[in-house]
Amino acid sequence: MLTFKTYKRCQQFISRAVFRVLFAHRFKAFGRKTVLVSPDKIEGEEYIVLEDNVSINSMAWLLALKQDKVEPKLLIKKGTVIGRFSHIVALQHVEIESNVLIADKVYISDNIHDYRDINIPIIKQAVLFKAPVIIGENSWIGENVSIMGASIGRHCVIGANAVVTNDIPDYSVAVGSPAKVIKRFNVEKNEWQKV
């Protein structure tokens, strides 16, 4: 008897195989055993590097937008797993290091929409580079998190629904909007401590 789980595995296997044959060659690099399941949109794939064993689940929107002769870089390193409905935008530099776990509906970008001129609709104003985004290895990004022009250190936990607009140091737990560090790992005592 065919179970739903078996059906989904077969469907995903076929989808991955078709995607790899038809589209993987268009990326700057597309690693071994990398899986991109039924993406919603991919733009600027010639500037996107997906290293080995990367898994990006369904309905992802990946965008590397070339603007002002600056070549964007969107790099996702080996072993990273990204949940469904992710939205990742690189105007200049977005890098997700190795073995990062990213939950569903996470937004990551190195830019913001300009809004300063009140005589022009925001949708018609420029997209401005804010700052490079680097998410450190072995980190965990919770569901519905937004990361905009800020970097996150190694082995960090970012709680669900957080909005990260300032850098988070290594070995931290951050929550809230705007995200604030609530715990840090104390190397001397070998334990997590409240801040």
Question: What are its keywords?
Answer:
UDP N-Acetylglucosamine Acyltransferase, domain 1; nine-stranded mixed beta sheet; 195 residues; globular; single chain; 1 helix; mainly beta
Question: What's the short version?
Answer:
By secondary structure, the protein is mainly β. It has one helix at residues 4-23, and strands at 29-30, 35-36, 41-43, 48-50, 55-56, 61-64, 73-76, 81-82, 87-90, 93-96, 101-102, 107-109, 111-113, 127-129, 133-135, 140-141, 146-148, 157-158, 163-164, 172-175, 180-186, 191-194. A hairpin with a 4-residue loop joins β21 (180-186) and β22.
- Count of discrete alpha- or pi-helical segments spanning 4 or more residues: 1
Radius of gyration: 18 Å
Taken together, the total number of domains comes to 1
Secondary-structure class? mainly beta
- CATH superfamily, by name, is Hexapeptide repeat proteins
Low-confidence stretches: none
In CATH, the topology is named UDP N-Acetylglucosamine Acyltransferase, domain 1
Number of strands: 22
Mean pLDDT, all residues: 94
Largest sheet: 9 strands, mixed
- In spatial order, strands of the major sheet run 2-5-8-11-16-18-20-21-22
